[in-house]
């Protein structure tokens, strides 16, 4: 009996060691899904190119886009752009002629990491749809998943990668915001590490993660973690509105304004105005990337011509889709009367209240935001935006990330408020 126990233990230990070594080098079963990401990309490019040459399909697309134009706040500009869709598609055709070059340019060819994730997703699909896919090796799926989790964890832990992401956001998102650049830099520097830390913590145990997404079979020792489902959204919105109503009010010549509404409207209005004023700079940055980095050099001139003609209008129309009133209402910091009173303020009166209100808002946030209904509203908003439309195995994992991220964000907000960082970003001494 002792011999059997010893032999069994030795076998299990040997198997575990061998599996660990395989995962380190990604040596998994050779029975893999056929095809590559490059093949699928080329197929999509060719299908798009063929459709763009078909007048009937182009007309159908224009009809659909014209209908969608009525859902925007810039109907005339949108319809004008749609009316010239053939010109835009015609300019794209020479570039689409070499499908492999297109896919190589976006790093979908000869990319082992992308192919590895593709194999994993196909294998997961096989597990979920046995009628469509058959003869799936569960061990292959599990091993490939664990290796992929390790790859992602190593990637996000890399300090050089983190610095590159931070610098990219500060250069391409914050730099064009003019006087709001300091505020944007603050948000990137303080909140981005929280996302990285939460993702790293969630991926700490690769096997548990793969059990959670059903890539690995559960056992008596490791079972799928069940996340708390998103609760009733309207109730949370109501509670968040009540919470912000307790922040206090700003006394102005135009009437009382919720302190939270004044702060939100001032910040969002300023950001949107800066982005509109800098739309040519934003368009130039997009042109530089698309025409000089993405496309081959023989398409540079035509790319520049097209983007110089259309991109400023596209950027303008995209920004105009957002309003301070809409955003602040969505996060429940405003009520109708406060919005009306804010818009009635003169520039001088707004400036006179800015710093005092910002400091008072910091005191309120510092003392009250952690554990408040806003924390749950952030979680629900992030989950709805980034998790709800994905496949089941992705939704659970994404939802767990957001549920852990929301408390981190409110804790950092309270810390920054206590240090006076928000008012300092507005140059309030």
From TrEMBL:
Residues 34-113, 138-220, 257-338 form the Saposin B-type domain. One of its GO terms (biological process) is lipid metabolic process. Residues 1-16 form the signal peptide. The keyword Ribosomal protein does not apply. It holds the Pfam family SapB_1. Transmembrane segments: none annotated. Keywords: Disulfide bond, Glycoprotein, Signal. Gene3D superfamilies: Saposin-like. This is Saposin B-type domain-containing protein.
